[in-house]
Design a protein that fits this description.
This protein is mostly beta strands. It has one helix and 27 strands. A hairpin with a 2-residue loop joins β15 and β16. The protein is elongated, with a radius of gyration of 25 Å.
Amino acid sequence: MQLGPAAIRSVGLPSAFAFDGGGKPYRKFTNKIRNPRGEGGTIGVIGAGGSSPTNWGYNTGGVGLSIELIGNGVRYGLPYTRVRFSGTAVGSGQIRFYFETGSNIAVTAGQAWGQDLWVERISGALEMIPQIIVRANTNLDIGLRIVDGTRQTGNSFQRISATAVIADPTATNVAGSVRIAAAGGGNIISGQSYDTTFDIFAPKSVQLSVIEGPELVVNGSFDNGLANWHNFPQGTGSTSVVNGAANMLETNSANRGRIGSLALMTVVANSTYKTSFKHTGPQVQLFSSSGLDGAGTLYSSPSSPLTGTEVVRTGFFVPTATTAAIFFQPTGATAGTVIVDDVSVKGQTPGYLPAYPIIPPVGTPGDSSSFAAAA
């Protein structure tokens, strides 16, 4: 089978270069996995004569299984890399297999990323699950956020994928990876023997568009005073609306104005939410209610009082469906008035992740690009 529009459609993939009926402009996607062909490795058990393909890597998770590079080839018109995971586990856990070095895929908060690959299990019972691992440094073992994708099941040729919006403002990189798990997606079990071989086809990691949901904060502009806001000052502190903005008066940490959103926001499991507001004056902190990922401080402004206005953009991830609220509180470090305005919370959803592979020419690992109609 040749790799072309007809062949791609024959395995359930959309054509990479077909025009839609309305002549819609095509958008460019760049695969940040530089070696989706899996070139450059040495055949054999990795670390015992064999080596990973260029830019690929792994973390055994302490389970003790050997990882063997068996070879490369072309099937279904796509290049594949055959990898075997075998042995008797000496610990419980999961193996992470990476398709890109730790710091190559740079990200910032608010971006959406998608990862996919095609896989065929040749033998055995272990399963493969794509992951987007968000981190704040280049250490592959420190994941700020791990988003699982669809789970590979059975031995058929199939696509597995994961998408995520990056919420954490400290995020710097994502990893293009999969985890190797026991049947059902659970941990590999210590003392149990395993022997599974996968063919991995053309992994890719691409930046996606971000689709924003409706505004969740009621009266975030304070045009209606403090309506829909909970006003709960401490001591002699107070909050009032002046010139269409919330003014929180503070003397110290025992005497300060505080406000929180009164109308609870309904948030959806495994979703990302963007939060923004304008701030002027002494240091202020933004808190999220319990039930959100990392419940507590979402943002803490610089300690020095601002003479101008900053526009703050941050976000949070929701692991389980719940209702949520946000709260503003001056730190009390400097007497004065904290001014907050234009408070906003909106859900963010990753846009279209093209299903077709994006592969560079043979022997030229590097960023590769292709096109797809914008969704």
